[in-house]
Specification:
The chain has about 240 residues and is an alpha/beta fold. It is built from 8 helices and 9 strands. It binds uridine-5'-diphosphate.
């Protein structure tokens, strides 16, 4: 099936891809590499929203598992996503790409609050808008934040750049016979609990008919390939 040409997309990157080959934190060289891919995508005329997770720094669930109050730990996770957003903003601006960070947790000294109409204007002016702090509430993830912003900004697709090259019928790390879907329906993802995004994010995309394109961002040049309809990926959509 030929892939539709997107005009506006939301790219979700998990925090872990900012680590590069480190075990924790941010590898500036790797962020610069990612920024080059984002710039190349933007240079094709695409309007680009970005959401970056925080798992390379802190996840609320991990804090809670070690005895922390879950909401408090989630606040820390949200702050981690702001750090990642600022790192990506820095890398993009060093390449001459105009950007704005909009955070769902207000911090006026470092970035804008989330204001949809302002974000629209930024996109029209060719700026990349990086949405930070997820949905701005604990007990959610940046996957849900990405789905919410994709719906709010009327994106044509949500691209999930991760460390696997698509959605499999079982875990490819433990099952060598696992099969990758080219396309799969939202309802199958939910019913079979396939590891794409969390259920609330998948349901939000389903209800707003936003295709989810899952691909590996670790392979150089893959974002451009996937955007041009090539490359290895899985598309989660209705009726697949
Ligand atoms: N988080 C949250 N609410 C949100 C988004 C994120 O509380 O709307 C917190 C949560 O603790 C989460 C952490 O921020 O674990 C980092 O986000 P996420 O786990 O989604 O990052 P990723 O796995 O994509 O790197």
């Amino acid at each position: 099936m030929p892939q539709p040409a997107y005009k506006r997309i939301l790219l979700k990157l998990s925090g872990e891809v900012l680590m590069g080959n480190q075990q924790f934190g941010i590898d500036p060289e790797f962020v610069a590499e990612l920024a080059r891919e984002v710039k190349a995508a933007k240079d094709t005329g695409l309007q680009l929203c970005l959401v970056i997770g925080g798992g390379n720094i802190f996840r609320g669930m991990a804090g809670a598992a070690r005895g922390m109050d879950r909401a408090q730990a989630d606040y820390m996770g949200m702050l981690a996503t702001v750090m990642n957003a600022l790192a990506m903003q820095n890398a993009l601006e060093q390449l001459g790409v105009d950007t704005r960070v909009q955070s769902a947790v207000q911090m006026d000294q470092v970035c804008e609050p989330v204001i949809r109409r302002r974000a629209e204007r930024h996109l029209e002016k060719g700026r990349v808008v990086i949405f930070a702090a997820g949905v701005g509430a604990p007990y959610f993830t940046t996957d849900s934040g990405a789905a919410l912003r994709a719906a709010e900004m009327q994106c044509d697709a949500l691209l999930k750049g991760t460390s696997v090259d698509g959605v499999y019928d079982s875990d490819p790390k433990s099952n060598p016979d696992a099969v990758r879907y080219d396309t799969v329906d939202y309802d199958r993802v939910l019913a079979d609990n396939l590891k794409v995004m969390d259920a609330s994010a998948v349901a939000l995309c389903r209800d707003n008919q936003i295709p989810i394109v899952v691909f590996s961002i670790r392979e150089k040049g893959n974002l451009a390939r996937v955007l041009s309809g090539e490359g290895t990926k899985t598309i989660v959509q209705k009726g697949a």
